[in-house]
Amino acid sequence: MNALAIFDALETPLDPEPRFPVEPPDGRRDVAELPRQTEFLRLMRLAGPSVEVRAYPNAGKRNPRQAISEGIKSGVFDIACWWNRGHAMIEFKGYSQRRAGELSANQIDFGNCLHDMGFPVACFFTPEAAVAWLADIGAPVRRVHG
Question: Which pTM value belongs to this model?
Answer without folding.
Answer: 0.84
